[in-house]
């Protein structure tokens, strides 16, 4: 039994229109059915973000994860403080629906994996005594580049009132591995075979909630170019361009209409076999970035937590 990758995040929002504008500007492809919006990466036939309109305010509804061994997971969930539940109203009764010890809803489905991404030209960097790109320019004129299009949803970061308890549930009930953590404030979980450094992560907060969804792009140039373009169109907060210590990925975060975040990333660490990986407990100064601009004051603020909305 094991989680294999993240599939999507479903959010309840007051009005899908601002979300449609934001995620379209981010490079996702939208389809609308009534008060629901399904936003997918170009070339994929499934949504990575689902918005359901009509809510009083934005709330995480559930996260969908691809997994195998659903029967074994169902048996393991109660022992780790979770519950197996019926499908919510309006959703198909397929796969396995569970709530974690804090009440966060997770939908586990056993399905075929996405097709592998096609290889892109290698990001060639000339270094001292190591010239790998000669007789050509690395950069074309700005007009040569089209809009940045995310390739896939790589990971999600969720809020938790008790990060170690959330990690224990993901590892013991859902078969994931702890990749790394920073004290009891933030932790990163991977799958056990052929995994990005993290697939699901948790940050400490008074309650559960959605912090960000992170989308892979081709290279650091696309992180920078896509991030700047989305900031200009969204007109809200951003954090980047920078690079994480934990996971090593280049990042640029842009704030969505409800205070959560969208991340472009490239070059994340890869864990081929979790049995050969040793998790590190990092100091707090390495919990967010190795380098980058100052962190926005509300970057780790959970606008979904009761009593936190107006802070």
Question: Could you report the average pLDDT, rounded to the nearest whole number?
Answer: 96
- In DSSP terms, counting alpha (H) and pi (I) runs of 4 or more, how many helices? 4
Largest sheet: 9 strands, mixed
The strands making up the biggest β-sheet line up spatially as 15-16-17-14-9-13-11-10-19
Q: Any low-confidence stretches, pLDDT <50, length ≥5?
A: none
CATH superfamily: 2,3-Dihydroxybiphenyl 1,2-Dioxygenase, domain 1
CATH architecture: Roll
Determine Rg (CA atoms, Å): 19 Å
Content-based structural category: mainly beta
How far apart the termini lie comes to: 41 Å
CATH class: Alpha Beta
Order of helices and strands: EHEEEEHEEEEHEEEEEHEEEEE
Helix content, binned percent: 10-25%
Organism: Sphingobium jiangsuense
EC number: 1.13.11.2
Protein name: Catechol 2,3-dioxygenase
Domain VOC: 152-267
Description:
With 311 residues, the chain is mainly beta. It has one domain: Roll (2,3-Dihydroxybiphenyl 1,2-Dioxygenase, domain 1), CATH 3.10.180.10. Helix content is 14%, strand content 35%. The strands form 3 sheets. The protein has a 9-stranded mixed sheet with strand order 15-16-17-14-9-13-11-10-19, with helices on one face. An 8-stranded mixed sheet has the order 2-3-4-1-5-8-7-6, covered by helices on one side. A hairpin with a 5-residue loop joins β7 (96-99) and β8. The longest helix has 15 residues, at 220-234. It is globular and about 60 Å long. The mean pLDDT is 96.
């Amino acid at each position: 039994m094991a989680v294999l990758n993240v599939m999507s995040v479903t959010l309840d929002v007051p009005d899908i229109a601002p979300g449609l504008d934001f995620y379209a500007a981010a490079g996702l492809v939208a389809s609308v059915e009534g008060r629901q919006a399904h936003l997918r990466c170009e070339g994929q036939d499934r949504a990575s973000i689902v918005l359901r309109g009509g809510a009083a305010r934005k709330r995480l509804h559930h996260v969908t994860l691809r997994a195998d061994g659903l029967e074994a997971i169902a048996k393991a969930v109660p022992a780790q403080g979770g519950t197996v539940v019926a499908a919510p109203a309006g959703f198909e009764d397929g796969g396995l629906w569970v709530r974690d010890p804090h009440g966060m809803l997770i939908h586990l489905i056993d399905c075929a994996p996405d097709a592998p991404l096609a290889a892109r030209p290698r990001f060639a960097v000339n270094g001292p005594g190591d010239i790998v790109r000669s007789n050509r320019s690395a950069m074309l004129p700005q007009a040569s580049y089209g809009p940045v299009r995310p390739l896939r949803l790589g990971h999600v970061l969720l809020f938790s009132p008790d990060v170690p308890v959330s990690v224990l549930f993901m590892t013991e009930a859902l078969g994931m591995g702890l990749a790394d953590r920073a004290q009891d404030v933030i932790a990163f979980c991977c799958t056990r075979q052929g995994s990005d450094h993290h697939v699901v992560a948790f940050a400490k907060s008074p309650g559960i909630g959605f912090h960000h969804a992170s989308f892979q792009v081709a290279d650091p140039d696309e992180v920078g170019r896509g991030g700047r373009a989305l900031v200009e169109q969204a007109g809200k907060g951003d954090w980047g361009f920078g690079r994480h210590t934990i996971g090593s990925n280049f990042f640029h975060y842009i704030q969505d209409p409800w205070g959560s975040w969208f991340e472009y990333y490239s070059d994340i660490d890869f864990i081929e076999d979790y049995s050969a990986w040793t998790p590190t407990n990092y100091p707090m100064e390495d919990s967010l970035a190795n380098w980058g601009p100052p962190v926005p004051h509300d970057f780790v603020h959970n606008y979904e937590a009761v009593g936190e909305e107006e802070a």
